[in-house]
């Protein structure tokens, strides 16, 4: 969970102090959060999303050098003078951008759930 660092500056722009949150009256109990069912569910959701996506990404990227080094399957022309290796390479760029956009959208929901868990802890929900 990301922390927002808030720096307090004096009139001459020298940094006087740095705090981890705007509300210093409450210390966050990370042990209680880590043991909560909500946090465990969030970790499970993140792992179920990130692991398959990462494996898919790595398999697709590792496949190109393997196919070009040990086979001639991608040397065949797809259309005109453009071979399948170029088509595969361009598809990797498209895949990378697509996976990045999917991850950013999903990470936003994970961040919201993490903020909800933090707010519940600040309200005294994990005592």
Automatic annotation (TrEMBL):
Pfam families recorded:
DUF485
Q: Where is this region: Disordered?
A: 1-26
Q: Record's PANTHER family?
A: INTEGRAL MEMBRANE PROTEIN-RELATED (PTHR38441), MEMBRANE PROTEIN (PTHR38441:SF1)
Entry keyword annotation includes Transmembrane helix? yes
Q: Which protein are we looking at?
A: DUF485 domain-containing protein
Print the keywords alphabetically. Membrane, Transmembrane, Transmembrane helix
InterPro entries attached to this UniProt entry: DUF485
Q: Where are the transmembrane segments?
A: 49-73, 85-104
Tell me which species this is from. Psychrobacillus mangrovi
Q: Where is the composition biased (Polar residues)?
A: 7-20
């Amino acid at each position: 969970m990301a922390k927002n660092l808030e720096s307090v500056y004096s009139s001459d722009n020298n940094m006087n102090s740095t705090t981890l949150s705007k509300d210093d009256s409450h210390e966050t109990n990370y042990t209680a959060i880590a043991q909560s069912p909500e946090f465990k569910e969030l970790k499970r959701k993140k792992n179920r999303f990130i692991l398959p996506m990462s494996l898919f990404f790595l398999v697709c990227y590792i496949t190109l050098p393997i196919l070009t080094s040990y086979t001639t399957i991608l040397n065949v022309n797809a259309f005109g003078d453009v071979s399948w290796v170029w088509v595969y390479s361009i598809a990797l760029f498209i895949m990378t951008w697509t996976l990045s956009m999917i991850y950013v959208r999903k990470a936003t929901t994970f961040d919201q759930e993490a903020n909800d868990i933090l707010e519940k802890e600040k309200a005294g929900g994990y005592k």
